[in-house]
Batch of 4 targets.
Target 1
Amino acid sequence: MPSLTDEQLHDFLSTGDLLMRLATITPEGWPAVNPLWYYYEDAAFLLGGRRQAQWVENIRQNPRVSACIDTAEAIHSRALIEGTAEIVDPAWLGDWKAWAVRYMGEERGGRYYDDTKHIPRALVRITPRKIVTWSGPGWHPRYLE
């Protein structure tokens, strides 16, 4: 199961409608995982969340996060991310129409964007410190005896 090349990783993270499963830490110290839309740009991940969302509050308290982005169908590919999250703008009204279209399609995504673009979101940037990837069938050689 080889790692993705830099080009393959960029394509994997930039195209399609894969969700990020973001893990944050609750105030009680428990991991909390949320499936989220994301946008990958300049080797960082951008997320737009409802300002009252628990995962956003968790980031305010502890910026260390982990995430998984993966395919459900064979040949399986995945990226495991560790990084630092930053709330770049707590009342963001930026243009995220491309995100809505990516995840919902042109018509539904465009309508959803138009209906909700006036609602401020928290814009979050995740700067990865580590990304581990692999793709393909079979086991990684380190697991074989």
Target 2
Amino acid sequence: MNKAILLELRFFGTSVMWGALLLVFYDVLRIIRRILAHNGFFIAFEDLLYWVISSLLIFHMMYQQNNGIIRGFSILAMLLGMLIYHSLLSELLVDLISGSINKVFALIGKLLTLIFKPVLFLFRKIKRIFVWIYNKIKKFNHFLLKSLKKILKSGKIAVTENEKSD
């Protein structure tokens, strides 16, 4: 086979691979979005960042493989690589990986609950004791204030009666 044709086939294969890799990177972004909730601004920012990095990577690949010349069949090859990857693996991997990560987070949550359940039980008991003590002190303070008000009131009456008799 002609050396030029082999070079073009190699460039075509590299372009197909780069198309699939670009979609793999976007799937990583999709997995992150499924795990961590994003608002519209961050989604737009992530997409912009993705496309800027992707375009730089594509330009770098074309510069190395084809002296920076953008060729139509290269772009079609990247689209073909994206299409093949998307139809064969994309949804399966995104669902599998994001589901697995969610299960891992759920397992970590259960382990933390198991570890901290006795600690929370002790804190609740200690809190109950402190609330009981606080309520007793509060009742005692209320009783003291009430008694002091009565004493003060009776003292005022006595003082006013002594002043009237003078």
Target 3
Amino acid sequence: MKVIHYSEAPSKRMDGETVKGVTGRVTIGKDDGAENFCMRVFELDKDGFTPRHVHEWEHEIVVIDGNGEFFKEGKWISASKGYTVFIPGMEEHQIRNAGDEKFIFACLIPKGVQEL
């Protein structure tokens, strides 16, 4: 068993043309013996966003704190603390912070996918 606060996991900062103000952490992954899924936690700074992209695997997401928006089929859908989001495989998506504080969410991905 592994029990940690997400902020204790090593972090990776992401900034560039297609991603801004994103810090990601693998909180549970293959190094922990997780055989089916990887759990990652992301913090998006004010005005931060992930890249708009498509891939084969699905995402299961739970919003931990803040106010964010999820891009789906040309529209932005709001979600805040306590909301869950399912993004099926092959659906174009992007996530952005829509508030003044950090937008924090946990995201599950299947094994075999690059963890971070």
Target 4
Amino acid sequence: MTTIESFDLSTSLSVTRPDSLYPFSRDKLFVSIYYCCKHLTDPERIASDLTNTVTYKLLPYISDGSITSNQIIKTTAETLKNFDKPAQVQYLAYHPLNS
């Protein structure tokens, strides 16, 4: 039997936007990735794996217990681009980067 260690950022990480602050939600990230990957075979597994990858890639950008929504969008878009360009285009259509 093997175990997989994971971490839950929702209790210790806040996402900042110019006008608000809210808890990080891995589930929201998963759902947004899932919808962008629905055209692929086994989108649930793919979205789960991509969500894990994005979450891991976000760790260096956490500062004082928070991360910007732009950094989440940028990291997710870059990860999707490397995996499936149409999924990245779909993601950015619904999650535009703020200037």
